[in-house]
Each structure stands twice: as structure tokens, then as C-alpha cells.
Amino acid sequence: MAWIQVRTNTTAQVAEKLGDMLMEQGALSITFMDAQDTPVFEPLPGETRLWGDTDVMALFTADTDTTQAQALIRSVLGEAAPLKVEALEDKDWERAWMDNFHPMQFGKRLWICPSWRDVPDPSAVNVMLDPGLAFGTGTHPTTALCLEWLDGQDLEGKTVVDFGCGSGILAIAALKLGAARVIGVDIDPQAILASRDNAERNGVADRLELYLPKDQPQGLEADLVVANILAGPLRELRDIILGYLKPGGAIALSGILDMQAEALAQYYGELCQVDPVVSREEWCRISGIKG
């Protein structure tokens, strides 16, 4: 099967918002990549690179007219926004991101490893990952912040809810780090499929329960909750997210920009004892304990 990939470049601050807008335009998946590692939009000799640190790649089926998607990018980033539109066969698309996805360490114990590469440290806690069409490889600062938080928790025998589970990376990491049971919830059926496939690849599928919101059982209760989504939904769904958590349970939230963190921390602070905000590349993690 053939695909069309529309690629542009922006800052990390804008990338997630733009990705959400392109999904609304019909993109099947959005991939974020560090532009410093894979410079597709190189300046000409003597020019200064004026664009950002994140490449945004939107994948569409081959029969999609991407004119509207391109117009959307220009409306958000300006008429001079860099754009690259190309047709990809399955093998080309897979190779394009497989070549740039390397094993990464988070915290002291945890490694995220592409399923097609050798693990650097067989004695570490290794999560073998194939993201499929779902977001979450660990390369984005929000995912990295959550993985590092999980690595620092005592998860032995605990129940964890991963709200917005995506590729399952956080859920599987929690299980590999000792959690007895993890519940993954996501609004995207592709995320449920990707999480299930990755759980089977890591031998933890028997301890991972996956639900669309409409299908989840009532009365779920967890020792820890992690939610790596966006600040808007985190605010709107605060009571639902905290409703999963036992009193005294720990929570970590990400997908939050620097400018949004203080207000959101105060909002969750009404019901939780909130830790100092942790920032990385304009993105933040809020964590705390439910009162």
C-alpha cells in the first residue's frame, strides 16, 4: 500500500497542536522527530536556519488530497513554512523512521528499545517497542518525563492506570518495572491495537487491560496514574483522572507546555499535594499525591 507523507518543521511548543490539527484533517498518524538529528530542511550555503527543533510528519493514504493539510500548515506557520510532500511505499515509510529510532535510557533502570535492534544492556529493564500507528516512542520530552518518573517509583505489586496509553510505552514500562496490573485507556482504537501488540512483544499482555473509554469497567482504582495527553484535556478531565486514583496514590501528568504548567499545577493542587514542576524543552511534568 502507498502513502503520502507531508512533512514540515516547527518548534516543540507548536508541534503537538499542529499534529492534532492535522489528525483532524485526516492524517492516519503523526510522528515528531528531533530536527537536529535528522535535518531534512537544511539551509542553503550562507543562510541561517530560521525554523524550529521538531519535524512534524503526517501520514495520509495515497488517495488523499493533501491540499487542505498543506494550507493548514501555512495558516499556522506562515506562507514561508518548509513543506515536503512525498509518496511512500510501506517499506519506505517504515525504513524512514526505523533508521532514526535508537535504544534510549530513562532514569537508572529503564531502556526503550526498537524491536528490530539489539538491546544495549541485557541486564536492564528493557521495553521492546514497535509504535505502529500510535504516538509514543520515548523521543518526545513528554514521554521521556513520564518514563523517568515511572523509573523512580516503587511499582512492585501496584496497580497503574495509563490514561491516553498511545503505543503502550508507559503501561508496558510500568509492568516491566514491577507493577502487578496496568489499565490502559485511549480514545483511539489504533492505540489499543498498538498497545496490545507491544504488550505481547514484551510478554506482559496477561497483566495489561486495554479499554476505549466507553468500554472501561466501573470502579477502577489504582495506586498510580500517569496521563501524557494535553493540558486542555487534563484540565477538563481532572475529576475523571483523579477518580482512578486511591487516596494517597501518586499521579504524573504531561503534555503540558511551560506557560500552562503553573495554572494546571494549582488546579490539581486543590485535590493533590503537588511536587515542583519538572521541565524539559518547553514541556513539563506535574506530579503529586492525591489527598
Task: Summarize the structure in short.
The protein has helices at residues 12-24, 67-77, 90-98, 141-151, 169-176, 189-201, 231-236, 238-243, 258-269, and strands at 2-10, 29-34, 54-61, 83-89, 104-106, 110-114, 125-129, 159-163, 181-185, 208-211, 222-228, 245-257, 272-274, 278-280, 283-290. With 291 residues, the chain is α/β, with parallel strands linked by helices.
Cα(first) to Cα(last) distance is: 51 Å
Main CATH class of the largest domain = Alpha Beta
Structural class: alpha/beta
Structural domain tally: 2
Per CATH, what is the topology of the largest domain? Rossmann fold
Strand/helix succession: EHEEHEHEEEHEHEHEEHHEHEEE
Mean pLDDT: 83
- Stretches where pLDDT is under 50 for at least 5 consecutive residues are 37-51, 132-136
Q: Using the alpha-carbon principal axes, give the shape.
A: globular
Radius of gyration: 19 Å
Number of helices: 9
The CATH architecture category of the largest domain equals: 3-Layer(aba) Sandwich
Share of residues in helices: 25-40%
Report the strand count: 15
